[in-house]
Amino acid sequence: MKKRLVIVGLGLMGGSMAIALKGFEDFEIVGVDVSQPTLRYAAEHGVGDWVTERAADVIPQADVVALALHPQGIIDFLTANRDQFKPGALVWDVCGVKSAILEAAQVLPETVDFIGCHPMAGTEFSGVEHAFGEMFQGSHFLMVPRPDSRPEHIALLERLAAYMGCKDVCRTTGEDHDALIAYTSQIMHIIAVAVCDDPDLFACRGFEGSSFRGCTRVAALDVGLWTQLFSLNRPALLAVLDRLLGNLQAYREVLAAGDRAALAEKLARSAARKRQMDLPGPDLLK
Q1: Which of 121, 226, 247, 271 has the highest local Cβ count within 10 Å?
Q2: The pTM is what?
Q3: pLDDT value at 285 more than 80
């Protein structure tokens, strides 16, 4: 008899997971979403084995439940369905913040094992129509087990990540994860949208260099999602933003002083740090 893996939320991430996980071990992949257009598209394009709008019909029989909703949606879903999960089930999420999600998961009964996860993959697009199974190829799969997480569930997630094509599984803590993501992802999105706030944006249309296009690629973001991600990771993101503002101010001061030697020294240091980071070396989260 097949086991059941339910993916709640069939957007870009959940839809891509449903495609990538078809055929995984002896699991039946069931997609859940409240959007009828999303469900129709998923059913017509084979996103998972089958789909439904009624989470309550499939959650109680699910051996594994993956939550691929927006952050607040995950928090609300855990609260609303805390008593619906099958005893012994594994519940995990794919959210880009971890501390807030792990705190919300404390509402679950002891019989349900929750493990925070974050496959570090995605695109600037959203929606199931942009989902593709190869999205996770070569990506890191970050995992935040709880002290009482079951070894067999950790091992299952490791096999699942490998099946999706992830490069590796990196264990970390909620706090370390959120600090990392604030620097490597969230602050980059803030830079992108801030650059697009410049009054000269449209006057430059057609004359953008590749560096401008690369910097602003993620600016056309999903407003609802990123509002939640920024808000739920506010302490870590503010710390990174304050450091960035200090670095920008330092460059402004050396430019305003007209000191070419000091400017060259700062540029050389920054460039050397980037080149050093690009050298092959061990991953820090192993």
Answers
A1: 121
A2: 0.89
A3: no
